[in-house]
Amino acid sequence: MPIQERVLTDCLEPFKGFVLSSMIFAMHRHGLDEDFERGTTLEELVASRGGLDRARTAALVDYLAAAQVIARDPGGRLTLTPLGRRFGEARPWYEMMIGGYGITFLELGEHLGQGSPPAPRVGRFVGSGSCGISMHDSIPLVRKLLATTGRDYRMLVDLGCGSGVYLTELCRDHPRMRAVGIEPDAAAVEAAREWVATQPTADRVRVEQAGALEWLASGAERPDLAVLAFVIHEVLGQEGEEGVRRLLTELFEAAPDLDLVIVDIDLQSSDEAAMKHPLAQNYYNAYYLMHPFTRQRLETRAWWEALFADCGLEIAASSLTDPAMDSTGMEVGWLLRRRAS
Ligand SMILES: C[S@@+](CC[C@H](N)C(=O)[O-])C[C@H]1O[C@@H](n2cnc3c(N)ncnc32)[C@H](O)[C@@H]1O
């Protein structure tokens, strides 16, 4: 017996979300939402943005209109709807989770087997999307932790700097500080350099292409402030616990008076009560899922805190994100120092 239309429609609800989120990212990526915000027509869009294929752009416009992301008046004028504008508020989440990890989710089934290689991801969008999200959650958290120290920092190293926003934001807060961003992904380095060049603090910031351990081995700098935001779980996935211990130990050997800020996500994916939170359902559930497929290893808050203690570090301060923005309690920030012996 053929499937009932009502059942089929219900069953295809997740599929609708898959394509819709991909099209929201496509619209943002090409800045088309800005054209729709101003108001445009298909012809103006194709003419003003040289290089767009007319038939494909028309298909995207039809799709977005049917999905009520844009509205089309009888004269063919296209404008962003309140719903379309709303999605723009979560732009960096789409950038990271679709631009960066969309390909990962699609390929995930091919990478479940023991010994299979990591699933692909797009480093540039992981770095830039993550930094965009950080403007909302992690950078305020880092500022809150640093406000407890009262120190006048002179040299920051941001290990895994992505598109570089911590460098420029923190240099704004600390006028005498210079900063270096370390980032292994070539496209993210390019994005970070482009971003830094547009900022008033550009003359105090530089970006280098390297992994965290590789940079440390070069012995280049002696920072008094270091940031590892959503990067320590990358090192744990790539180099194992031994690599993380080496990173922490060498950081403090090179700069014993260092203030180290680590921000990471507490692994709560198997806590069914925690995962019922609406933001956990709409975001963290997918966030937790893709990590083991991309050589990343998340751990619990308790696990990290035991490791820090074992590496001779003390927690000078810790905090969660502002609950007005994220009340899951899943994102944690620590300010770490070498324990006085
Ligand atoms: C999730 S992003 C975080 C970007 C930024 N720190 C933030 O908080 O938004 C993780 C970044 O770490 C970088 N990364 C991966 N492995 C690394 C390593 N071994 N050392 C330093 N950075 C690394 C990635 O390329 C990526 O840009």
From TrEMBL:
One of its GO terms (biological process) is methylation. InterPro entries: Methyltransf_25, SAM-dependent_MTases_sf, WH-like_DNA-bd_sf. Pfam families: Methyltransf_25. GO terms for molecular function: methyltransferase activity. It comes from the Bacteria. Residues 157-236 form the Methyltransferase domain. Keywords: Methyltransferase, Transferase. This is Methyltransferase. The lineage of its organism: Bacteria, Bacillati, Actinomycetota, Actinomycetes, Streptosporangiales.
